[in-house]
Amino acid sequence: MIPAEHTRIIVAAELEGAQSWAERHGLKLEWSSPDLRLQLTLPQPETDATYYLRGIFSEYRALPPEWSFTDSAWTAVGRLVDFPRPVQTCFGASIFITFQDRAVICAPFNRLAYTDHSGPHGDWGGVGNWLNAGRGQIHAETIGDMLQAVYRDFAATRGRMG
Amino acid sequence: METMQAHDAARHDTVKVIVFSPRSPHPREFTWRESLKVGEAAREAATAFGYQGGNPGLQTTTKPPRVLDNNKTLAAEHVHDGERLELIDTGGGVSR
Q1: Is A159 within a domain?
Q2: Is there a domain that residue A161 lies in?
Q3: Cβ atoms of residues A18 and A147 within 8 Å
Q4: ipTM, 2 decimals?
């Protein structure tokens, strides 16, 4: 168990780079320290529709954040209608997938991608192994890296999953 | 005179670029040979920013960005003096 105060110190250290990244890309990034929640508002380049990316950072960095696109109230998680429709990019398959009728950001840096958190991956050595999981595939170790990784695939999307 | 010409030639074989990383608020400046592969340059920049693993690559900061081919040289990818680049991870999605 990682005390919330430890997580806040770690996040504060990483947030400076992430905020600079968001500003460079013209994106709105908000950190809510009391509930360890990060919110990024993303306009889809192709449609200009707004998407809401949320990260919950409890127990970070022992565990990766819980990343998901949500509704505009930042509450509903895993709904197809809140996720961008994936497009294959020059990097290969998109990280946005459907699994058991839910939408998931399928990457080692997302807690919700692991079987023990209702995700598809039981082959990554458990969620505590997130920094070493999925070698050779998309990799991100800090908040800024994670945002960049999601944005990389998001920028190519068109429309919604559902 | 010969030394100056050699120096001049060497200067024209290099590009000075500014690289941004999503993990740092401070960009870094690099001077690279134009014959350097993008992937090698990206790895050097990634190491300077503290990355140890992953699949580093570079893209332009234009809108939309242009992803540079890791297997081509900086010259072949038309990287020019003063260009602003951003580090990205080029790993693929995880297909199920």
Answers
A1: no
A2: no
A3: yes
A4: 0.93
